[in-house]
């Protein structure tokens, strides 16, 4: 009898944890990352696995922001320096194998559903963010690429820029890696 009650109690606790995990997953909308001192929000539904910044092979005659290719869990992925692509820095001079950037740097792969074998180099992961944690800023009226979404501020006054990975995957400039 005691075993049955213990089993019911265990099942009840597991059901509560599962429900809590589901509700938490609904509240987290973005993966917050930092690159070149800028804060970016990547939709969780469009982001894939996160990898440490490791070995990669450069590809000649490509744009400076296209770092090369790497084997990520058995798949060949193109590596793009996010800040370099967005024009915040000259990638060739800042990303070197011995650079201290590698300690916190991560590669954020695109969700496999987007059918793009690509990963973005970011300098630091900054956790998960939800709409409840951020306040939307008014649109400044400037023309932006289709992959750039809204701007937000967090409770500490830090500005975050939303980037759509699905729109980025279809952006002509992003797909044109030949330099």
From TrEMBL:
Domain CheW-like: 27-174
One Pfam family it belongs to: CheW
Gene3D superfamilies in alphabetical order: CheA-289, Domain 4
Biological processes annotated in GO: chemotaxis; signal transduction
Listed SMART domains: CheW
Protein name: Chemotaxis protein CheW
């Amino acid at each position: 009898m005691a075993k049955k009650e213990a089993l019911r109690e265990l099942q009840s606790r597991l059901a509560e944890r599962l429900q809590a995990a589901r509700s938490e997953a609904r509240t987290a909308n973005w993966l917050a990352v930092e690159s070149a001192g800028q804060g970016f929000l990547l939709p969780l539904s469009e982001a894939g696995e996160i990898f440490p910044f490791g070995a990669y092979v450069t590809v000649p005659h490509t744009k400076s922001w296209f770092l090369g290719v790497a084997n990520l869990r058995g798949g060949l992925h193109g590596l793009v320096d996010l800040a370099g692509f967005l024009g915040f820095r000259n990638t060739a001079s800042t990303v070197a194998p011995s650079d201290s950037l590698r300690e916190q740097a991560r590669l954020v792969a695109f969700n496999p559903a987007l059918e793009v074998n690509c990963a973005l180099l970011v300098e630091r992961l900054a956790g998960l963010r939800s709409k409840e944690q951020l306040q939307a800023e008014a649109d400044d009226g400037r023309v932006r690429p289709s992959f750039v979404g809204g701007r937000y501020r967090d409770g500490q006054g830090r500005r975050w820029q939303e980037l759509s990975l699905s729109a980025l995957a279809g952006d002509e400039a992003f797909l044109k890696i030949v330099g």
